[in-house]
Amino acid sequence: MKIILFSRQGVVHTAGDLHQMFDAIARFGFDYAVNEEFAPQIERLTGISIDAAHRYGRPMGPQPAESVLVCYGGDGTLLDGIHRLGGAEIPVIGINSGHLGFLTSVPRNGCIGDVFELIAAGKLECQPRSMLEVTGDFGDGISTRYAVNEVVIQRQGAGMISVETYVNDQMVATYHGDGLIVSTPTGSTAYSLSVGGPVVAPQCACLVLSPVAPHNLTMRPVVIPSSSDVRLKVHARHAEISIATDNETCPIPEGAEFKVRLASRRFFLAVPHNISFYDTLRKKMMWGVDIRS
């Protein structure tokens, strides 16, 4: 079994947490690898030397079939870790040192060693999750990108933009406003939720179109089948425009077109058997908590 550790700059690491990780790796006899951005922080905080054989970069390169990606940070860190896999079907588990953490289900306080014990005992549930494939005018030589949570067309600056939206070549609407989000069920608890989109269970075969600050107040999120082909054409008279696929954003020209559909690649979210999606909702959203007292 190989543990692939991933974290990124900006995450607050503590020597105690890192020692817990490496003590558990040694105790269970795991092989390991650390991303090249994380390794210097481990060495600085713990004094543990990470040699070249135990480092990986971009791309990650081939990994053994029995590997688990352990991401230390928030949901943004986990998203970056999934993209680093490049489509490899390696289970991913997150240790939450961030804030809300819908995807990073394991709290860091006192539980880091437990993660590796669950991995060693094979007591993790691997949930297949859908991703989006986006093709179009990115303007940087890359014609296809992938997203775990969402694809967002949005304005940069004060001007309004318009997003012509088609589903299977049938026009849905032209969204005038700040932009449009196309999200997966996994992404329904991310940006889409903050603009009024529905919470969607991850097993649902659907996508969500959520307008961002629409100029027409009757416009509401629309749930469409996951088999849909979505086509977006962007217009702006004054504002600059960007497209974001999860954490990665790039500027796009006026008139740019994109096609969004369910990707053939998936990722596998590893969670403890005793934590369900609904458990996470109740805990993170504080559903059922009596705030009157």
From TrEMBL:
Binding site for NAD(+): D75, G76, N149, E150, H176, D178, T189, A190, Y191, S192, L193, S194, A213
Principal location listed in the UniProt entry: cytoplasm
Swiss-Prot/TrEMBL catalytic activity: NAD(+) + ATP = ADP + NADP(+) + H(+)
Any one GO molecular-function label of the UniProt entry: metal ion binding
E.C. no: 2.7.1.23
GO biological process, any: NADP+ biosynthetic process
Stated role: Involved in the regulation of the intracellular balance of NAD and NADP, and is a key enzyme in the biosynthesis of NADP. Catalyzes specifically the phosphorylation on 2'-hydroxyl of the adenosine moiety of NAD to yield NADP.
Protein name: NAD kinase
Organism: Alistipes putredinis DSM 17216
